[in-house]
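pinning this so it doesn't scroll away 📌
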Amino acid sequence: MPTTMAQQIERGRAVLPVPEPDLTPDELVARAASLRPLLRAQQDDNDARGTYSDELHQAFLKAGLYRTMQPKMFGGYEFDVPTFYRAMMEISRGHPGVGWCLTLCASHPFLIASHWSEQAQRDFFGPDGYFAAPHRPMPMGTCTPVASGYRINGQWNYCSGIPYASHFIGGAFLKDGNEPPKVVQVVLPRGTYTILDDWGDDATMGMRASGSNSVKVTEVVVPAHHVVTIENLGAKPDDMVNGTPGTRLHGNPMYLGRMMGPYHASLVSPIVGAARAALDEYEDIIRSQKTMLDPTILRADNADFQRFLGEAMALTDAAEAIVLKGCERYMEYCARWAKDGTPITVEENLRLWTMIQQGGRLACEAVEVLFHSAGSAATRKGSRIQRYFNDVAMYRSHVSSQFSVFAGIIARAHLGKPTGWRGL
């Protein structure tokens, strides 16, 4: 049933536990892993609902997952990028759709802390430090100057993570006078937008619990400092020479906030989690079921099933290593900038993106190997391995996952030719 505006606002509120000064990155990741049984127990309900339960939301709050990359100045842990995605892989191993929802909701304090002014950050993080928001960067709305700031109108689809969000970040076209329209990013607080009832249950073949509802905004006015241009999001290396609002405010080079290289890890970490989940399920299957040709032999004792399992294990290990190395490389680029001012180039940024894409490609292949060899029972509705197969199929269709398209883009960047992408 569609939720009322009052219900939407209430769901987006949160009372965060006080940050724990002694919490370590490894402990945060362990907390995420400990939620796996609860995540798996709720898979069917979360898929039907279209997002995770309030019980899981409270568990994520208690574990500190929303605060992972949030600045310490505003009540966060300010852990590095690899730590966040390690934790999200663990959540996704429990339920990839929930992992997608949480990752795309909890990753963007990093974006806000990088590119918006101190005044805006104080507005967004507020007195209790709860900030969670999807980011739909494609310009699907309009931004019109008015005396008190900007008037926003539009409708954005696939706003993954919106059900428990405190804010929404969306791209819009700004038309000011006779100047050509330019792309801006605007932050809107919960209560100023409507979440449409267009996600969950059988609305899509996979990622049903990802909370990827559409958002509608009508005649909402925001202050001018809540809007930034796409160039301020690091689309051009020259923008980073003197750092960003975040590097100056927080003194942490991580907050160069370079898009889109490390950004793609938000899409791939749930897919790596899906591959881990499929491995767990496949192992249960072959340890409990016999082969068809000889019903006296467990599949786990059959060379063919052993080979399928081993191949998928190798693919998954490689996928995880690629994603985490991509995140580490981003941190290295940020440290390099802090040391000598060298920006992250267009080619470096694109190669990070395509590197992490390959991690997603391998994780998808792992799930596909397991699904195709698990037997026809795996195709029945309610089968966990079918859920994971459908979830990775959704990633395969995402525009950012099209590795063959991006191959040409990085080649053009390397050869010094126009990439064909706006802002690059």
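📌 and the second one:
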Amino acid sequence: MQPSFGEGRLMRYPMNDNDLKWTIEDEELLLRTPVYDVLQQHEIAANGMVGDYITIDAPDWVMVIPEYKGAFIMVRQWRHGTQALTTEFPGGVIDAGETPAAAAERELLEETGFKCGRLVPLGSVSPNAALFRNRFHIYLAEDLIPTGVQDLDDDELLTYELSPIHEVLSAFGSGEYIHALMGTALALYFQYRAKEKMQ
């Protein structure tokens, strides 16, 4: 017997992928800000259902995992959303016309003063597929060269520090280690290291 879901509607399992798709019929810009646009999408499902959904259109983001002498280089900064200090990997917005790799090297140098000798792409994911249209790119930076010079934006106040890898892992999810996307970066980092050991 098939399960029943709400108001007597019956759903069949497994469903074909095409049965799950929605198509955008119309789109309206609700709000434009310096960092993202908020859109309302009028969509229709394969079975004829219609609905209006809010999405956020933002530039792609990048995060860099700088590994240096058995530690991660972490940045500490004030986050306006949580009104608190966070400790996280360097990263930021990818500029128009900039590749994710170039943005990773730029953000690393600007925020920490370290040049990257070797950059390894770890993955590209959606920061939140329900709301965001953009992508989030993660890189591992190795063979780092310290320059001792940061190049921060006018409104950036941050410092950097070396943190042992095991301490970052054990602290994540508590205290200042609350940046959720950093958890994704850590997962891809350990996935990469596990694959290395199997080779």
